[in-house]
């Protein structure tokens, strides 16, 4: 039987989630992120629809169960936008935005449009107002004494010398008391292969690393050797 008040409640919930999801998605689309306008809008609308359906069918208890499933389901969706690019992990902020957009939809579907607007404002503030602060911190010179950092020793060699270069890399670092957490292949082609040894310590002596890389680079099995440091996120 058609229930006009319930139908209007659903229409309002979906409309609010649509508008707020689109506002969040518009900011993401402007910055050319993986999950943009349509994705964030659909996440908000979908979350609102499921929560509203839970309320309609089972009351508050049903909505609580649906919200739990929405939270876990969005987690799987967010995992799909997280990518590992060499030594960097990308997409964490996009995944977090999707998760927060689902919260906007859940509030809207539960009949709390004011709270949905508040969450949307905080999501937008996190993606916009905090950006200058993030850029300021990122531009500061890296201080290994106060910053937890990841040190990597990079080696470029020919494909037929990968095994010898890997052994040389491990032997040299362990000889200088730099235990290795892992040796990974960053890039590979028919002509060159780049290996990177991830060091266990979070601090190291730059001059000593320069000496180690220079020594490794003298090997006939190695084209070049260098090292890098990056902050952990």
From TrEMBL:
Its main location: membrane. The chain crosses the membrane at residues 6-25, 37-57, 63-83. It is found in: Cell inner membrane; Cell membrane. Residues 151-227 form the MgtC-like C-terminal domain. It is a multi-pass membrane protein. The keyword Kinase does not apply. Keywords: Cell inner membrane, Cell membrane, Membrane, Transmembrane, Transmembrane helix. Belongs to the MgtC/SapB family. This is Protein MgtC. It comes from Nguyenibacter vanlangensis.
């Amino acid at each position: 039987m058609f229930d006009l008040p319930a139908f209007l409640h659903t229409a309002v919930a979906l409309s609010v989630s649509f508008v707020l999801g689109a506002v969040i998605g518009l900011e993401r689309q402007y910055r050319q992120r993986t999950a943009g306008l349509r994705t964030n809008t659909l996440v908000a609308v979908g979350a609102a629809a499921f929560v509203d359906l839970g309320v309609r069918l089972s009351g508050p208890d049903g909505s609580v169960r649906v919200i739990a499933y929405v939270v876990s389901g969005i987690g799987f969706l967010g995992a799909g936008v997280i990518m590992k690019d060499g030594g960097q992990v990308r997409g964490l902020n996009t995944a977090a935005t999707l998760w927060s957009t689902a919260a906007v939809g859940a509030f809207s579907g539960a009949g709390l449009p004011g709270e949905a607007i508040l969450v949307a404002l905080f999501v937008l503030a996190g993606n916009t107002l905090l950006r200058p602060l993030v850029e300021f911190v990122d531009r500061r010179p890296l201080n290994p004494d106060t910053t937890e950092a990841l040190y990597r020793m990079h080696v470029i060699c020919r494909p037929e010398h990968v095994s010898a270069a890997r052994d040389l890399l491990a032997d040299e670092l362990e000889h200088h008391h730099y235990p290795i957490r892992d040796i990974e292949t960053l890039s590979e082609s028919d002509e060159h292969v780049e290996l990177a040894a991830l060091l266990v310590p979070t601090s190291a002596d730059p001059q000593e690393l320069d000496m180690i890389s220079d020594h490794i680079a003298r090997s006939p099995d190695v084209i070049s050797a260098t090292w890098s440091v990056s902050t952990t996120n």
